[in-house]
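Progress against Task 2.4 (sequence-to-structure conversion) is shown through the following example record, which the project officer requested during the mid-term review.
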Amino acid sequence: MLTFLMTFIGVFLLYLLMVLGTGDGGTFGYLFHWEELVAGLIISLVAAAIARTVLGKAENTKLFVRFPLFLVYIPVWFAALAKANLQVAVMVITGKIRPGIVRIEPGLKTNLGKTILANSITLTPGTLTVDAFDDREEMYIHWIKVKDTKTMDERIKGVCGSFAGWARRLAE
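Structure tokens generated for the chain above:
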């Protein structure tokens, strides 16, 4: 029930933020139309009901508890995104591309942690999560700049940067 309520409030506040200032001076002044509030309530209820099935699992509720930490992670991810964009642009211009598939073992135990890491990797230019297993701790990543590394830690650091540590903090 707490997950449902938190999701409902979060989605409704986000909706209100998006429609803020669209009123015409009526009941709610220049902030909102009453129709927008009703639509926001309905959309929030539907979103919370759908999310309840996904977020209701004990493993996934940790993300709600650690939501402030997730807010800290967002700027870290955006900084890595900007850095990766520049690196890929330089590699494309100079032609110094060495693509390949790399196997990593980030040591994540939960599916939520693996999902956070896989999405963080895939959304960063130059990398793509090809396969991640439920029953094993290994992941296969297509990387645009494969390096000869001797240890798994060097490979994880090269492919993921700090994403594996953040996924561990957020999900485990």
